[in-house]
Amino acid sequence: MSIHSVKRSQNHLAWDNSIPPVLRVKSGEEIEFDCLDASNGQINPESDSSTLAQLVFTQLDQVCGPVFVEGAEPGDVLQVEVLNIETAEWGWTALIPGFGLLSDEYPESTLKIWSINREVGYAWFDEEKKIKIPIKPFAGEMGVARKEDGAFSTIPPYNTGGNIDTRHVTVGSTLYLPIEVPGALFSMGDGHAAQGDGEVCGTAIETPIKVKVRLTVLKDEKKSRYVRTPHFNTTITGNPHAQHSNNTEDYYCTTGVGPDLRQCARDAVRSMIDYLEAEVGLNRVQAYMLCSIAGDLRLHEVVDMPNYVVGMMMPKSIFA
């Protein structure tokens, strides 16, 4: 099977369906992406808090691509399988004035540089206090071009993906994106070594990453009807409610994306109802009840204004 590559230099700073693809692949082929961190290389291991005042914000959150997937047409679904992710040996987290959920309470610039121990899979937050963070890398940005003409910022997420900052879409996960333009025009970036749900201060452990994904076009009318925002399959470990003996649980997740948090939650639940109706055969009343009984509603992203990402996660083990 062919494995293609996209270099760091092959990036763009807006979702725009007029950007020429840097690569054309067949459905089902694998691509390796080499992505700089979200600062686009403006922050390095020797940086300190003074660096933040010099950031060129128009250069942040670049994505690598776009990749044209042959056979992809509007109305199809792009399946993105995350096969491997490798972080750098360093990362950064910052408080940037005016950015973050509590930005009004934290007006000072602060930068933390991390040392990432890839062999043991953690990074010290505070070694003296014995606070260490497990490394669970993922790409914050994964998306396809929008059907609307023009340039759309890579900072907020959209129904077509983009800056979804969803920590559960890591190695072994599968992301589903609604295709709106021929070829899909997939791009990705914004490497994270670790992040909590919400990314509340505005940054995670930001780091350069190398990622391998497999892109497959799904021409499934049933799936196309309910995948109208990013959906994904994932496995979560360390779950106290897990039904597997190895303390893991498999989930299917739907999302709501937009500027109104309550509406995002409603959209995520409604999309899960659509999924349960189409794939499990429940009627809509049963599906709504099941969402309340077994579904987990999560705030995946709350800082990339003007849009939020809310997820409804359904454990698959209940269908055994």
From TrEMBL:
MF terms in GO: hydrolase activity, acting on carbon-nitrogen (but not peptide) bonds, in linear amides
UniProt xrefs under InterPro entries: FmdA_AmdA
Pfam families in UniProt: FmdA_AmdA (PF03069)
Name assigned to this protein: Formamidase
Taxon lineage: Eukaryota, Fungi, Dikarya, Basidiomycota, Agaricomycotina
